[in-house]
Amino acid sequence: METIYVKLDGKIKIADSTVLLQDMATIYCTNTTVNQLVRELPVYSRQNGEVRRVISIMYILELVLQNHPNWSIASIGESACVIEWQERKKQNGIWENCKILFVALICFFGTSFSIMAYHNDINITNLFGNIYSLALGKEKAGITFMEIAYSLGLSMGILVFFNHVGKRRITKDPTPVEVEMRAYEDSINLALSEIAERENQIISCNENQKNEGKQ
Q1: Sign, CA torsion 26/32/35/37
Q2: 179: number of CA atoms within 13 Å, CB side?
């Protein structure tokens, strides 16, 4: 008996109308012939220009066992996969660079405004003046070492926190933005799966698919 290990992805984006098992999962089997047959197994075909479809791992297991009942299957991935169809588009380098520049400007000026608003709320000028007077016993005149040290420390703190200098990482750890984006994607995938299951739109077995087609 051949054992097939299926690691289902949480979400995929695809342009082809027909979705193969290898598009939405990683398959492993010691038998190369069986492995190839499972990889090329058609799972779902896009209907009526739909944009999204959620498919349960139970449907995939049932589909494989119906064609090959003597095989043994082990699922080690997600319980459902969100499939999104997107049209193939030619890359426009100038347009992509313009979008990157626009996002960078928004982040830069937005962050600058937030920092300035925070400094204005706490009246940082008077704060530095009071600290200067308490430490040195005289009034602060103009820009001092405190403003310079604070500006350098703030810049270094931002770089260390975001773990990025240009295209290079400071450490091998994922950046906070990558962590939050991954958590956001996981939450979206879970919400889409739960909504589809609640609305009986998830494909979990052949019987459900037939009932859905009759509606």
Answers
A1: positive
A2: 7
Tokens, residue 168: 């290079």
Neighbours of 90 (CB within 10 A): 4
Taking CA 151 as the corner, what is the angle to CA 150 and CA 155, rounded to the nearest 5 degrees?
115
Average pLDDT along the chain, 215 residues, taken 10 residues at a time: 86 90 91 88 88 91 84 88 83 82 89 90 87 82 84 86 77 84 90 88 64 43
Question: What's the pTM value of the predicted model, to 2 decimals?
Answer: 0.67
Task: Dump the DSSP string for the chain.
Answer: --EEEEEE-SEEEE-SSEEEHHHHEEEE-SSHHHHHHHHT-EEEE--TT-SEEEEEHHHHHHHHHHH-TT-EEEE-S-SEEEEEE-------HHHHHHHHHHHHHHHHHHHHHHHHHHHHHHTHHHHHHHHHHHHHSS---SS-HHHHHHHHHHHHHHHHHHTEETTEESSSSPPHHHHHHHHHHHHHHHHHHHHHHHTT-SB-SHHHHHHHHH-
**What is the distance in angstroms between the CA of the first residue and the CA of the last residue of the chain?**
39
